[in-house]
Structures are given as structure tokens and as C-alpha cells.
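WARN retry 2 of 3 for item q-0093 after timeout on previous attempt; input resubmitted unchanged.
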Amino acid sequence: MSEYIDGVRVLRHSGTQNHTDVTLTFAVGSRDETLRTVGVAHLLEHLVMHAVRHLPIEMNAEVDLMTTTFVASGSAARVGEFLSGLCRALAAPPVERMDVEAGVLAAEEGQAAHPVVAQLLNVRYGARSAGLAWLEGPGYDGITPEHVVSFARTWFVPSNAVLQVTGPLPDELRLELPTGSAPTRVHPVGRSFDGPAVVGYGIPAAGVLLTLPPDDAVRRSFLAIDVLRQRVEEECRHAGGHSYEVGGDLVAGPGGSTEWVVYAEAREGSEEAVSRAFVEALTDLAENGPTEAELAYHVARSQERLDTDEPELRRAFSNAMGRMFGEPELEPVDRDGLAALRPADLAAVLKAALPDAIGYAYEDAVEVWTQAGFREATLCPVIPELPAGQTFKPPFAARAFVKEVRSMLLVRTDAALVLRDDDGVHEIRWDEVAGVMRSHDGPAIVMGLNGCAIPLDSDLFRGAGKLLAELAERVPDDLWFDETKFDA
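OK item q-0093 returned
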């Protein structure tokens, strides 16, 4: 029978220890913010952890793409104080500390995801959902108390949380979180491509985003990604000596699918070698699957987890979180099916994902991917041609002294704002503006939900002031923000 405390699902781990370890996980992360509130989850986490900082126990917290997690370890009584104080702070966030914590967070320079992960998710989703991990938004100093309180009341409710406990449960534990019904989220439709694509940027690394189906009883999707990550690590780190960090991340997608990202960083001068090793690993595994030795190793790892972990409790946690994410129920692991797994089974998973894959390469190594059949794509969508409309050209001085400006043209139509530059033609529809940033030096930057950004600067375009006036009428006040002062 399921156990709840004040509406929060509780999972008890076995153990005879005298101390208590707890993990309180909420199904909310950076992907649940908006461009206007980027960073609000991390700011809220700092505020509430400050409220319990004086307790003499081990404690920590983390915000990632999908979750916000609080952990503590100590005596049952102290851990109970931690959980109770934490929940009270979530119900009434100490917003009077926001200015101080904004400075702390700016100094921390933390990220919800690795830059390659954030970049690829931004290519897929633009300025919404998981794509926001790539964007700065207004900065921590641009978030208001109302944003913090609203975010806490929406997402940090009992029905959006799971508490895991190892050791004695604190006596008379109370988890007085904000009241409210379980929040709902809509998965946006991501950008798709006609065949595998690759984007280039200045991060010295290589990576790939693959959309895989819900996992089955053998966990084929998870194993396919694990095999890919291990092969890349073997080639880029242990064999080539090109990489230190080889990792991965994931975010829930529509229809129970999962967006997986695997990446490998590259030391200076080895960017092309890392891309080559990455592409060869990906394409070979998609065609042939792992070697028998690789497969045996990964099956043994899975079996080891089943023998030494608490698989049913792990599955209960995954399913509790999955229900909040809108994912299908995870079946128990089929040990016989796992033992009978063949290389072709994992090859089929990766091969099916390749047509919609998005690769990432350091900007000078993109050709390695295109030679393997990946089509080079722009970081944000472009449309085939410039539409008819009111045009705004760069002034003579800009065209005379800045080469990149000569081909630029701004067009206003009844439906959209359009910019032509060296990358192509970018369109932001009036009804798909994610936000407008007022920069320190005067011009505004219009940001679209599709990931495109268009500057409105009189130094770049004659008559841009008229467009700014129109933008002020079309775009709600709560989507406008100033560039963070921490960049000044």
C-alpha cells in the first residue's frame, strides 16, 4: 500500500542504519521556466536552502532540466527539522533575500545542463521548455518576488513530489508545502529535420541528440545510449587521449519519448579527432550494434544493479516521477530478455533514431559530420525567402564600415518581424515573441519562441524606433526585461 505524508508520496529504502538519509524530489526543473523567468528554479532553491542552513547536518540541493532535489543526512530528529523547515520556506519563500542570492548565483555561474546538452536542446526546442537551458533571460537580478512565489505555488505542491527515506522516519514529520492540484505541462513540438542534421558552434566538443521511444522490459533505449556513451569514452578518452569529460543527459519528450544527449569534450587541437571518433562510433553502432564483448559488459552491469540494488523500489520511484512527467508505466526488468539481448537489438534502436538526430560539432569540424551524411543546419530556423513588407535598411555608415551589415535587411509584415543576415532569413511571428530584452547600450533584442533573435537598433536599421514603438503595443509588458546588470 502506498504511503503518503501530507500528500507527498513516501518510499522507504531498506537498511538498519541509525541515521536518516532523505531525498525530496520535485518534478520541476529549468525546462518549466519561461524566457522571462530563466533561473527562477535555481533562485528558489537557494532561498529555501538558506532558511535551513544552520542545521548541523549534511545537506545539499540541485536543479537540473527536469527535477529539483533536496538531500539531507543526519539524525532522524534533525532531518525532520530540515524537511519541515524546507517545506515551510517553499510555502512562503523568503523573497527578502533575493538581491543577496542573485549576486551569489551570478558568482556561482551554475548551469542546469552541460553546454552541449543545452545547445542541442535549444536547437530542438528554441526558447521554450528544455531549450531555455541555453539562454540567460533577464538574469537572476531580473526575476521578481512575484515570479518566485508563483513558481513555488505552481510546482512545489505535494502531488508533484516524492520523498525517499533510508533509516528511521522522523517522528511526527510534517511536509507543509503549498496547497494546490498537480500542475500540468504541455510538451512543445520540437524542430525536425529532413534526415540527420548537425550544427556547429564554438564549444570544443562533439555530441548528438537522439529521440528514443519509451523503454521496454529489457531497457533497450537506456542500454543503447549507455553503449554509445561507453564507446565514445573508450575512443575519445582511453584510446585517443582527446577528452576528459564524456557524459550524457536526458529530458522527457512528447508521447513518452525521451530526448537523450551524449557528448564528449575536446582538448584544444583535438576537436576534429573527437568529432571523427564520435561519428564513427554512432554510425557503426547504428549499423552493427555493439561487439559481443561490449554487449556482455553492459548486460552484466544491468544484472549487477538488479542484484545489488532494490529494483522494485527504483521502479516505484521512476514510475512515481514518470506519472508527473506524463510518461508511460515502466515494466519490471525482464531478466531472461536481458540475457537474450543481441547486438542487432540495440543497433535497431539507434538506427531508427538517426533520421531525426541532431549532431553537434566544433565549428571547424562540421565537415566531419557532413561527410557522414549529416546535413549542416542553422542554430535557429530559417525560412526560404524574404517576404514582402515594410523594409528597414542599415544606414550608410554601418554598411560602409561593417562588412557583416551590408547584406542585412529588416522586414515588417502584418504577421511577423523578419531579418535577413549571413545565416539566412529569420522570422519571429508577432504572436510567438518569447521576450524582448532592453540591452545596456540602448537597442532591444526580440527573441522568438523558435529560438531566433532579432536586434532592433537604430544604428543597424534606419527607422528601427518605429518598430520599437509598435513592439511595445504588441508585446505584453511582462515579456519585456532589462539585460542583467551582472554583465555590465
